[in-house]
Amino acid sequence: xxxxxxxNARERLIRGGIPPRQARRILREFAEHHAxxxxxxxxxxVSAEKxxxxxxxxxGSEEQLIAGTLARPELRSWLRRRPCAAFAMAPLLAxxxxxxxxxxxxxxxxxxxxxxxxxxxDASPMIHWLTAGASIYLLWALPAAIAAAIALLAAQRxxxxxxxxxxxxxxxxxxxxxxxxxxxxxxxxxxxxxxxIGLGRDNMASTMMRxxxxxxxxxxxxxxxxxxxxxxxxxQS
Amino acid sequence: xxxxxxxxxxxxxxxxxxxxxELARAIRTTTRQAISVGESVLYPxxxxxxxxxxxxxxxCTVNGRTRVYYSLTRGGQRHLTKxxxxxxxxxxxxxAALLGAQHA
Lengths: 237, 104
Prior knowledge:
- The complex is a heterodimer of chains A (237) and B (104).
- Helices cover 69% and strands 5% of the residues of chain A.
- With 237 residues, chain A is mostly helical.
- A two-stranded antiparallel sheet of chain A has the order 1-2.
- In chain A, a hairpin with an 8-residue loop joins strand 1 (178-183) and strand 2.
- Chain A starts with 8 loop residues before the first helix and ends in a 6-residue tail after the last helix.
- Chain B is α+β, with helices and mostly antiparallel strands.
- Chain B has a single domain (2-103), classed as Winged helix-like DNA-binding domain superfamily/Winged helix DNA-binding domain (Arc Repressor Mutant, subunit A), CATH 1.10.10.
- Chain B has 4 helices and 2 strands; from the N terminus they run H-H-H-E-E-H.
- In chain B, strands 1-2 form a two-stranded antiparallel sheet.
- In chain B, helix 1 (2-15) crosses helix 4.
- Chain B starts with a helix and ends with a helix.
- Chains A and B meet through helix 2 and helix 4 of A and helix 2, helix 3 and strand 2 of B.
């Protein structure tokens, strides 16, 4: 029934900016329509082959469907229409919100622990692992995850503009500029937490290393996928 | 012509929900075959109307076949009313001009 589905039509629609799910739905509806036309022809007593030919002639070609779809800019995804906002600005905003939100959650959690009489000391293994995990998450995992999401989305949508790369680099750079630490007894007199953003002389090398490693980790697979897709434009995702 | 097909699609879907093949047939029948929307461009048109919030789609499986049924939203109903008034105004104006030209 779905043999009428054009082989690379989905790929061409996605490349034209149609969201993958919508491209799949349009093609499925198109194929179902073709099957209905074949069934209609068969009831008039023609052979299966003739019925298929007549259905294809009436429904139109793959080119017409693709041209008709791409001629409607409103069907293109927001990501394609506003790549700067989608791939560069929105991820940065998402990173800022996730960073601040995570700190608020951590503060709430430690306040809750304190209210239950827990000792907020680095000597406690649970507190030690919790603070180490939170630092890794905020300083490494969060920017890397957001940069990876940009790369994944850009690859999925066959985005060819420079904006995904800009988004990845900016997110990783801003992520590397953030700092976060716990000050816990016995090293500090009172438990506390510091977070901020900035670049100092003493931490320049580590900042560059963080930015470079997270950017490389996410950008290189993306660039590789983009290059291989250019070589094989009909590859399905 | 895209305005005409849009108007026809909205008008037909105001009566009952339909899927693409049914709609293509309904257009041919109700316009006495005077207008036939290119069947391959029917789906981009339907998706466009849905994107603009004038149609909603519902997927359902009938005898193992997946059908996407389209129906009008409230916004679609309002847009249909507006388009119908506009169409009547324009076609009335064209009719008047044609009659005038005949009598001149």
